[in-house]
């Protein structure tokens, strides 16, 4: 069967350092915001660490010591791209050092060399839901000096890995800062809107400065942003609901507007004014923001609805301010499954930015059970990804320029939202439970062989 996926389409998977590496204080690494959240993002509280306490992410799946085995499994599936992140605190343990930690740099040298050996292109996120706690104690992204610290970090890794890494991303799901400011910008719960948007502004400036540095140091490389693809529909056709959905979309995508267009959109400046939000934007900041990204990357797991009815919204909305869609089924964690939404989002982002797109997260978190033969027949995961990829192909036929697809969690990892192992995404099973018990043995699921076939056929074997 013919396929619309381009011949050079990049197929693979995506993970994050803090969810797979473990070795949380090994070889000079400093504490990060993720290390301080043993209950995950959804706890919405900073959980202080005490000696002897437990965080599943401290060991995670021990990728730090098992990366060669895991990358070999990814290569067996046929990956041409693997998205992961560098743990900032492995390179600058407190965040404000003048000189990097050589042991941290050497670890990623080995990881990227292993990928290269297997013919896998690294796509590297500079900051994926973690930053050094040393910087948090100095005000997080609310402190403008953090821009300089991030710039030093970015320059260090671009220079070190310029021959090994050609695809870069700045901040993971940068728009999540609106919903969880500690994770996004290192601010404590209860921070004011002005404080949060000032910190976001500093992060946007840092992102633009990293883009400039990447273009200078890795001239043949490409650097993009990364958005949480929170697709929303009006709950009804009432004009008020349609307007509310538009406003919510703008609130989420203004980050991309700044990163792709180089300036704040008028609607956001009005929002600041209408809500008495003060953001200090210097003339130099405006100049720095003009360094725009080469491509747009995003995650997509679910869609939701928005309504102007405050009573309905208050009673039903989730962390992303979305109301459940009555026409959709949900996963075991209440995430609504909407494959067609993938096509809608791809077209919306293409129409909005006219920049190449890259799907860097998409997958199904589910409870996997071993059958009597010790196998995992995860047909639900196969169906979920198949149906989304069918819509991806439709978007390509619509004229969307798409560089690649990396499924979220090709190997089981610790969930960011809930800090669970039981919420599994992988094509590869890892023997570890929520209490930290298990051998860490890797096992191929049924979906492993299915995805292998999809990659080998460049999408032509999808069930349409």
From TrEMBL:
Catalytic EC class: hydrolase
Active site: 361
SUPFAM superfamilies to which the protein is assigned, alphabetical: (Trans)glycosidases (SSF51445)
Domain of life (superkingdom): Bacteria
GO MF annotations, alphabetized: hydrolase activity, acting on glycosyl bonds
Catalytic activity, EC: 3.2.1.-
Transmembrane segments: none
InterPro entries recorded: GH (IPR017853), GH_1_N_CS (IPR033132), Glyco_hydro_1 (IPR001360), Glyco_hydro_1_AS (IPR018120)
Keyword Hydrolase among record annotations: yes
Record's keyword terms, sorted: Glycosidase, Hydrolase
PANTHER family: 6-PHOSPHO-BETA-GLUCOSIDASE ASCB-RELATED, GLYCOSYL HYDROLASE
NCBIfam families for this protein: PRK09852.1
UniProt family annotation: Belongs to the glycosyl hydrolase 1 family.
Protein name: Glycoside hydrolase family 1 protein
Source species: Thorsellia kenyensis
């Amino acid at each position: 069967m013919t396929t619309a996926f381009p011949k050079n389409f990049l197929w693979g998977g995506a993970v994050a350092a803090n969810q797979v590496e473990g070795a949380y204080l090994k070889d000079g690494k400093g504490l990060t915001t993720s290390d301080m959240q043993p209950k995950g993002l959804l706890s919405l509280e900073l959980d202080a660490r005490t000696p002897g306490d437990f965080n599943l992410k401290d060991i995670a799946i021990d990728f730090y010591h098992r990366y060669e085995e895991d990358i070999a499994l990814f290569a067996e599936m046929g990956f041409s791209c693997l998205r992961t992140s560098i743990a900032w605190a492995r390179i600058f343990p407190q965040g404000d050092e003048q000189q990097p930690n050589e042991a941290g740099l050497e670890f990623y040298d080995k990881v990227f060399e292993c990928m290269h050996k297997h013919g896998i292109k690294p796509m590297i996120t500079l900051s994926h839901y973690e930053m050094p706690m040393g910087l948090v104690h100095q005000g997080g992204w609310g402190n403008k000096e953090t821009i300089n610290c991030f710039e030093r970090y970015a320059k260090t890794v671009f220079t070190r890995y310029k021959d090994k890494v050609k695809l870069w991303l700045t901040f993971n799901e940068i728009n999540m800062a609106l919903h969880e400011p500690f994770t996004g910008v290192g601010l404590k719960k209860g921070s004011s809107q002005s404080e949060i948007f000032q910190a976001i502004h500093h992060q946007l400036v840092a992102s633009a400065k990293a883009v400039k540095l990447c273009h200078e140091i890795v001239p043949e490389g490409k650097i993009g942003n990364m958005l949480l693809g929170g697709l929303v529909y009006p709950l009804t056709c009432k004009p008020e609901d349609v307007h509310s959905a538009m406003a919510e979309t703008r609130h989420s995508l203004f980050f991309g507007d700044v990163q792709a267009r180089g300036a704040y959109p008028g609607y956001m400046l009005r929002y600041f004014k209408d809500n008495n939000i003060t953001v200090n934007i210097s003339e130099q900041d405006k100049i720095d923001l003009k360094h725009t990204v080469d491509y747009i990357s995003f995650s997509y797991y679910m869609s939701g609805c928005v309504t102007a009815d405050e009573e309905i919204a208050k009673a039903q909305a989730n962390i992303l301010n979305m109301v459940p869609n009555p026409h959709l089924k949900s996963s075991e964690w209440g995430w609504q499954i909407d494959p067609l939404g993938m096509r809608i989002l791809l077209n919306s982002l293409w129409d909005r930015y006219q920049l190449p797109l890259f799907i860097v997260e998409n997958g199904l978190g589910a409870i996997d059970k071993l059958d009597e033969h010790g196998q995992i027949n995860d047909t639900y995961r196969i169906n979920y990804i198949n149906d989304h990829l069918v819509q991806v192909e439709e978007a390509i036929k619509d004229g969307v320029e798409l560089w690649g697809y990396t499924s979220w969690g090709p190997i089981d990892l610790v969930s960011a939202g809930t800090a669970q192992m039981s919420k599994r995404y992988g094509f590869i099973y890892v023997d570890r439970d929520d209490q930290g018990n298990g051998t860490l043995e890797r096992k191929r699921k049924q979906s492993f062989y299915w995805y292998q076939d999809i990659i080998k056929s460049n999408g032509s074997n999808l069930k349409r």
